[in-house]
Amino acid sequence: MNDKRNIVHMDLDTFFVSCERLLDSKLIGKPVLIGGTSDRGVVASCSYEARTFGIHSAMPMKLARQLCPEAIVVRGNAGIYSKFSDNVTDVIKESVPLYEKASVDEFYIDLTGMDKFFGCEKLVSELRQRIIRETGLPISFGLSVNKTVSKIATGEAKPNNQIHILKGTEKPFLSPLPVNKIPMVGEVTYRAFCDLGIKQIKTIQEMPMEMMAKVFGKNGQTIWQKANGIDNTPVQQYTERKSISTERSFDRDTTDVKKLEGIIIAMAENLIFQLRRGNKLTACVTFKIRYSDFQTYTMQQKIPYSSADHKIIPVVMELFKKLYQRRLLVRMVGVRFSHLVEGGFQIDLFDDNEKIINLYHAMDKMRDRYGDRAVMRAAGMEAKSIGRWNPFTGAPPPLLPNRRR
User: Fold this and answer.
1) Architecture of the structural domain at 169-238
2) Binding residue per annotation — 24?
3) Using one digit for the tens of pLDDT, what is the confidence trace for 245-286?
4) Which CATH number fits domain 1-164: 3.30.70.270, 3.40.1280.10, 3.30.40.10, 2.40.128.110?
5) Structure pTM?
6) So where are the chain's domains?
7) Catalytic positions
8) Gap between the Cα atoms of 353 and 357, Å rounded
9) Residues 28-55: pLDDT tens digits?
10) Does the annotation flag 13 for ligand binding?
11) In whole angstroms, what is the distance from residue 131 CA to residue 103 CA?
C-alpha cells in the first residue's frame, strides 16, 4: 500500500516574516525578527537573513539584537497570520480532494490516484503557483510516497522551491542527511545520537531495527522506520468542526452570577490546558447556555489562533455576558473550542516577555504531575468537577494523578 501513495507536504516559508513583508515591503531582504519587542521578549520567528547571524526561534530577543544590531524587530500579530493562513487553506480546499492542516503554516495533501488524470507533480506545482499568485506568500513542497519523506523533502526544497522524491529513491535521498532532519528527533534525542557517534541517517539505515529499539525503546523503532523512508500514517481530512468541549449541568438551577462566572472560568481554564497539553491552537470559541425551561442558546466567535488563558478566557466571558438573561434560572453551561490545528509555542512568543509563558509552563507542569485542578484561578474554585471530552486521546481522561499522554 505504502509505495502506491502520492503524499505532498506544503510549508509556507518563514510564514510570520512573509506575512509582515506583504504588509511592509521595506522588510524585504532585511534581517527581520518577530516576537516580543522588549529586552525580555523572545524570538518567535526570524528571516533567512537573520539566521545567517546565528539567530533562531525561541532565542531571547536581547541576545538576537546583540548578534544582529541592524535587525528590524516586529511584534507578532496572531490575527494577521490567522487570516493569511485561512486564505491559503481556502485555496487548497478548492483544489484537492483530501488535505490535512497540520499547523497554521503547514499542510499534507493526499493525491493518491490523481496521477492517472493529471500527473501529481504537475497538479501540486500548479497549486503552489496559485497560492503564491493569490496570497503573495512563498511556499515550498515535497512530494513522495509518505508524510515523513515529503516533510523532510520540503525542508530540503526551501526556500520557495519544490522537490519530488521518486518512488524507490527514498533511502538514498535520506541517507546523507543529518539525523535531526527526521521528524520527532528533537534536541535531546539528537544529542543522544551524537554521543553514540551517529550523525547521518545512513548510519541508522544500516543498523538493525532491534538495536534501535533496545537503545531508544518504542521511539527507536519509529525513528528507524522513518530513517528508512517507511511511514504508513494517513493524511487525515481537516475539518473546521474538529473540537474539544466541556459542559457542566447543575444539581439545582441557579441565578448566582458569581457561581456561574467561577465555574465558566474554571471550565475554560481547564480546556485551554488540554489544548496546550495536546500542542493545539484554537481559532473559534463557542459558549452554550441552557435555562430551566430547556431553552438552549449558543454563540461563537472566531479568534486569532491561540492556546493562552489571557487571550481566550475574556472571549468566553464576553460570550457568556451576551447570552445570559438574569431573570432565568440556568440549568447548564458549556464551552467548546474548534478549528483546532497543531502548534502553540511560537504563537505564545508574541507576548512581550517570557513571564506569562513561563507561568503557563510552570502551571501545566504542576497539573501534569498532580492533576488538572492542582493549580487554578481563585475565581474558578467554585467548580468542583469538570467533565470534558479529550480529542487527543479519543476518550475521557484518567482519574488523578494525571500524567502527560
Assistant:
1) Orthogonal Bundle (1.10)
2) no
3) 999 998 889 888 998 999 999 999 989 988 888 888 999 999
4) 3.30.70.270
5) 0.79
6) 1-164, 169-238, 243-389
7) 106
8) 8
9) 999 999 998 887 888 999 999 999 999 9
10) no
11) 17
